[in-house]
Predict the structure of Triacylglycerol esterase/lipase EstA (Alpha/beta hydrolase family).
Amino acid sequence: MRHAHRSLPVALALSLCLATLVAIAGTGGASAAEKLPVPYTFIPTVIAGGLPGANAPGTNDWTCKPTAAHPKPVVLVHGTFGNRATNWQTYGPLLKNEGYCVFALNYGMKISPGAILGGQDRIEDSAAELKAYVAKVLEATGAKKVDLVGHSQGTLMPQYYVRFLGGAKHVDNYIGLAPLWHGTYTNGGLPDLAAAFGYDAVDGSPVCKACLQMTAPSEFLRTVREGGVATKGVRYTNIVTTMDEVVVPYTSGIEEGMTNITLQKKCGLDLSDHLSIVSSRTAADLVLNTLDPAHPRKVRCTLHLPAIGS
C-alpha cells in the first residue's frame, strides 16, 4: 500500500506532462461583453488548453481597466510543472466573466527544456519574477494592489515576495489552493514529481530546484516561517483538500492567523486531489466569495473527481 501511495504523484505528474506536451494553442482574453465558457475538468482542459506560449481564456488582457466593483486585478500563480495556460483554464474565464481584470504569469522556467514546465527554479528567483510581473500589472491597470490566487507552489512562492521583496504593500488577498505552508513530508510527493520527469531530486542541485525547497524540512521553509508566517496587512485564505496526495499531510496547508477552509467540509462530494482542485466548482465559489465578500454566493456542491474533475 505504501508503494501504491507513492506512485500516485508520479502517475499524476506523467498525466500532466503528457497533457501539456500535446496541448494545442488556446485563446486569450475576451471583450467585457462576451461570456466565456468555464470548464470544470482538469486533465481534459489541460490537453485542450495550450502550450506555455498561450494564455488561459480571459487572462492577460493588458488593456483591461479595473472597475469600481472589482478595483483590484487578480494575478494567478501556477504550481510546479504548470504554466499560465494549463493551470488556469477554469479561473481565467470564470474571473473574466465576473468582471475582474485577470493576469497569469509563467515563472521558474529558466531550466525547463523548451520552457514547457514551470516552477522549477529556485523559489527566491521565481519570487523576483513575480515581483516584476505584479509591478507590470499595477502599471498597466493603474491599480494600487492586486489579489493573488495560487496553486501548489504558487501558494508558497509569493510569500517570499510578500515578506522579503516588498510585496506586502502591493497584495491584498492571498488565496491558496492546495497550499503547503509547512512543506510536504511524504517520501513521495514533490521529489517523486521531479523523478517522474527524469530529474534527480536527491543530490544537492536537482534540476527541479524548487522541489527540494518545498520538501520539509528545508532551509527555505525555515526562512519563510521564521518569526511567523502571516504578514500584517495581507489577508490569507487557504483551501485544502483531504484528498491531496502531493502535499502530505494535507494539513500542511493550514496555518495560524489565516482563514483555513477544508474543501470536504463544504462539500462531501468534492473529491478534488492536488491537481483537480483548480477546476472544482466548490473551490471556485469559495475563491469568488473571498474576493468579493460583500456579494456572497451559494457555494455549489457537485461530484468532482481526482485529476479529471467534473
Q: What stands out?
A: The first helix runs from residue 2 to 21. Confidence is low (pLDDT under 50) at residues 1-32, 201-205.
